[in-house]
Amino acid sequence: MLEYNEILPKKVILVDGEPYEVLDAHVFRKQMRKPVNQTKLRHLITGKVTEQAFHQSEKAEEADLSVKEVKYLYMNKGAYWFCSPQNPADRFELSDDLVGPSGRFLKPNAVVEARLFNDEIIAIKVPIKVELVVKDAPPAVRGNTSQGGSKQITLETGATVNAPLFVNEGDVVRINTELGEYVERVDKK
Question: Has domain 129-186 been given CATH number 2.40.50.140?
Fold first, then answer.
């Protein structure tokens, strides 16, 4: 059990039996009253963000989340297919909503972490930065910097992102999966 002032960002707590991640917490005192911890919480299953105040006498239970590794196989008709890294025959599918927007940067056979709550997968944790090969990049036209010097490239996973004009087909680029943005070109060795 966590005291009201121990409910801090990045902690996962249970509210009415549901798992919430603490996004923001601020302990303050209003005039002569007792201290209050004003928090911003994100529901780990639905993604809905709510605000809740925890008073000095209240406690919150820390959610029991477990993590297991899963191997990404392929995407078919809006569903992502995964398997156990040790047993490829142990396959299961997860919805596009559950995997989230960073799923478009998953490469086949990539091993990622799955977060479990009550032995049920509630989220997939894709690495923050991944390296992908550029499959299609329109040629850079000299003097074409009116759009800020960027162009849209297609990656090996089929995802499209904006990148600088010097990125060419066949280059390896690093992508930030949280923001869905180009970070840098990786040197070929």
Answer: yes
Q: In sequence order, which residues have a C-beta less than 8 Å from that of residue 75 and are 6 or more positions away?
A: 81, 103
Rounded Cα–Cα distance for residues 21 and 125 (Å)? 14
CATH code of 2-62, in short, is 2.30.30.30
Model confidence over 19-76: pLDDT tens digits?
A: 888 989 998 887 778 888 899 998 887 778 899 998 888 888 888 888 889 998 888 8
Average pLDDT of the residues in 139-157: 76
Q: Which residue stretches of 39-153 are H helix?
A: 96-99
Could you tell me where in the chain the CATH 2.40.50.140 domains are found?
65-125, 129-186
Q: Average the pLDDT over each of 98-102, 119-123, 146-150 and give the range with the smallest value.
A: 146-150
Amino acid in the structure at residue 14: L
> What is the dotted CATH code of the domain comprising 65-125?
2.40.50.140
Q: Rounded to two decimals, what is the model's pTM?
A: 0.70
Bridge partner list, 79: 76, 95
Q: Say how far apart CA 100 and CA 106 lie, in whole Å.
A: 11
